Fold this sequence. Notes:
Blueprint: H1 2-26, E1 28-32, H2 39-55, E2 60-64, E3 74-78, H3 85-91, E4 103-110, E5 113-120, H4 123-136, E6 140-142, E7 145-147, H5 158-161, E8 166-169, E9 177-181, H6 193-205, E10 210-214, E11 225-226, E12 229-230, E13 242-243, E14 259-260, H7 271-291, E15 295-300, E16 304-306, E17 317-318, E18 326-328, H8 338-354, E19 360-363, H9 375-381
Parallel strand pairs: 1-2, 1-3, 3-5, 9-10, 10-15, 15-19
Antiparallel strand pairs: 4-5, 4-8, 6-7, 11-12, 13-14, 16-18, 17-18
Helix pairs in contact: 2-4, 6-7
Amino acid sequence: MKHLSIFGGCLGAAVLMLTAGAAMAETRIDVEVAPDAPKLERMATDELAAGLNRLFADVDVRVRAGVPESAKGLRILVGSPATNPSVKSVAADRWPTVSDQGIVLKSVDSNGRRCLVVGGGSPAATFWAAGELGHRLGVRSLLHGDIFPKDKYPADSIGERLGGFDVVMEPTLRTRTWRTINDFAVGPESWGLNDQRKLFRQLAKLKFNRVMLSIYPWQPFIDYEFDGVKKQTGVLWYGETYRIDGDTPGRAAFGGARFFENPDFAGLASYDEMAAAGQKHMQGLIDAARELGMSVGISISPLEFPREFAAALPGARDATGLKNLTITAGAPQSPDDAVLRDLAKAQIRALLETYSGVDVLYLSMPEFPEWQEHAEAAWRRL
């Protein structure tokens, strides 16, 4: 009887150890990306792993470039058959036909191990797929950051929450654009590059795929010369300044600064300083958007120019607007006026030569319709 008791105790301990081992296997998640994966897929992998760590309690989440076949627990494969050999090995015959914007969340089994493929038809789509998985797990991505569920999910819910996926999504709208820079201190013209980068990452999680940089003739983002006249106007917020003093609500948040300024332009005064900072800021925005797989467009009004160019465009009129900082065509200029055309070309050429990586150019008209002298002739011609 004594020997039976000892044997029973040993058997019980062995069962407990096996059970504990199985439980430990269920609490491990390997997030696998190819060693030479595109940068955006590596970013998606890091984003996914960090989110899983915040979502599940007592879970061992590991990012790996290749996982040993002997490993236990859930295996999440990031990418597509074209970018991740493991996805090709596990799911190539079950990979759906998707466009470059299609996203895929697919549960499969491989050699008895559960796998979840998180990918898409391009690295950008894979990043969106990681965001979509987070959304389906209860994460809400907002412009300022992510909101996670109040309480972490228990480890024993991994199978339920990360299994059974068979999702293929294609966009209804292929171009999803966020407009930034603009012209007022209450908007993104006051945001420094670091804040814009954080925002762009959130936009990418929300599946935005284009950034439009909307700039104005009086801002310091392009520099050009025409017919001996050099651009000399380069201001923000129509040239307004905003003092921070004892009457300013929330002034402690500004850390003792005397004026409210875009941090990328703080303390700058001369045109040359502002122009250099403006070009650095704009190129930084373009690079940040491209890094996240977004295309970039720039919006300008090619028939408006800073006031100093009145000397090169005889008969030009002041364009209606705050502080009247620009001129536009007047009665002497017809729509096909050679000088007007060449001045507009000089402005557009300066923009395209200054900034690399621009995909789209948006051309707008002056806000107020006041160049009406040639309307009748233009209508007949049309």
